[in-house]
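stage 2 :: seqdesign
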């Protein structure tokens, strides 16, 4: 296979192997920590989970990516990136240990969320630093290949970490101790990621200290002005704007349905006192959704070649609108799990097509800023959807009104793309 051949070529590069090891360990840790957080919020026997608490957890996981993302580059161009990877991973290990201790002490939720938020906020610097460092360990000819394979490997590592956390949690006695142990496991992996960065030279990953950097305040102000220029540029690129709008609407639907699924796993499909049963159902749903993402990655190149990127986005959103009511309204386990798979295909298929549209329709000088705006819209829509779902969902997660409303949003995204196509 071409992917295996490309990966074999890259792995011959010593510094790439070392940077990839840091990425894999870092994102493996992220997967463990995120599942540990979700388990504590949703499946703790001593907690009566609400949609509002799930929305709060999603905000903790995603908002740091959105709010800090555009500004991390300013600091990563001033600090040694090897040191960023080292100290940020060590800091996350310490903060994760603190989070595990807070779980054992049964502190108020706001204090737990503050601790968890600090871990996920630091993560933004690690992921951005890994991306910024890649050109320092791979030559120009192989950079596109490395950009395709390295983040994909990281995503697979995060998925594996989440699956590992699910398995570990299922074999531990229910309660705060199991949640704390899982978080502590994530802390150990963060420590390993930090130590792995020491295999690289202090200055290997840059930045080039010979370049004159603007003052920090000027650099931050320039970032804000640059984002404004990116918004104006995006308004002039109607195809990219329409695709991003449709994708943001689909992301909103996916976020609201995620909260519904969590509530159904906890209260409707299993005994609320048997948290392991609910957790196993959630793990199955996450696995099916991930399988849908994989299928989308395989199918989308073929589909866009025949339908075009706009046509594929229309097909994904229209398909979701058609499938959601019959699969979702029974609120039964098997149809909803099928929906997790098909909506995974639709959401990721539209995301791949949207990324392609944005990359091809925007000028290179604005592309980084456009993707920063895209990232903010993408994650904010997910968090906003979680908050919206928290307002309308009943305690067991069954809401026909929400299912029908989201089907209409999917249909609106398809119609909006179709009406302005061309």
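stage 2 :: out
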């Amino acid at each position: 296979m071409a992917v295996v051949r490309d990966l074999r070529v890259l792995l011959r590069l010593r510094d790439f192997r070392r940077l990839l090891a840091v990425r894999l360990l870092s994102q493996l840790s992220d997967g463990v920590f995120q599942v540990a957080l979700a388990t504590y919020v949703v499946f703790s026997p001593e907690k009566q989970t609400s949609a509002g608490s799930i929305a709060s957890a999603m905000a903790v996981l995603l908002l740091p990516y959105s709010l800090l993302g555009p500004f991390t580059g300013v600091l990563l161009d001033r600090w040694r990136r090897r040191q960023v990877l080292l100290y940020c991973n060590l800091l996350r290990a310490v903060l994760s240990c603190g989070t595990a201790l807070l779980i054992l002490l049964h502190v108020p939720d706001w204090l737990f969320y503050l601790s968890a938020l600090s871990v996920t906020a630091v993560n933004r610097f690690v992921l951005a630093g890994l991306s910024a460092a890649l050109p320092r360990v791979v030559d120009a000819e192989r950079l596109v290949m490395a950009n395709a394979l390295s983040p994909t490997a990281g995503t697979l590592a995060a998925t594996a970490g989440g699956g590992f956390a699910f398995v570990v949690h299922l074999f531990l006695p229910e309660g705060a101790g199991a949640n704390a142990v899982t978080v502590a496991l994530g802390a150990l992996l963060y420590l390993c990621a930090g130590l792995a960065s020491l295999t690289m030279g202090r200055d290997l990953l840059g930045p080039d200290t010979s370049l004159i950097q603007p003052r920090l305040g000027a650099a931050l102000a320039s970032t804000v002005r640059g984002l404004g220029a990116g918004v104006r540029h995006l308004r002039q690129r109607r195809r990219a704007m329409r695709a991003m709008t449709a994708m943001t609407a689909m992301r909103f639907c996916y976020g609201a349905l995620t909260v519904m699924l969590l509530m159904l796993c906890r209260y409707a499909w299993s005994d609320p006192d048997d948290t392991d049963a609910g957790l196993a159902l959630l793990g199955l749903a996450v696995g099916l959704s991930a399988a849908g993402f994989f299928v989308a990655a395989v199918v989308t190149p073929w589909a866009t070649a025949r339908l075009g990127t706009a046509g594929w986005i229309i097909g994904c959103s229209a398909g979701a609108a058609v499938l959601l009511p019959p699969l979702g309204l029974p609120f039964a386990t098997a149809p909803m799990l099928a929906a997790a798979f098909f909506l995974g295909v639709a959401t990721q298929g539209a995301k791949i097509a949207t990324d392609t549209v944005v990359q091809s329709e925007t000028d290179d000088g604005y592309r980084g800023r456009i993707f920063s705006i895209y990232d903010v819209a993408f994650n904010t829509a997910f968090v906003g959807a979680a908050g919206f779902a928290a307002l309308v969902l009943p305690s067991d997660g069954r809401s026909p009104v929400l299912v029908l409303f989201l089907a209409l949003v999917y249909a609106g995204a398809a119609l909006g793309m179709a009406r302005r196509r061309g």
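stage 3 :: structure notes
- The chain has two domains: 13-207, 231-422.
- The mean pLDDT is 83.
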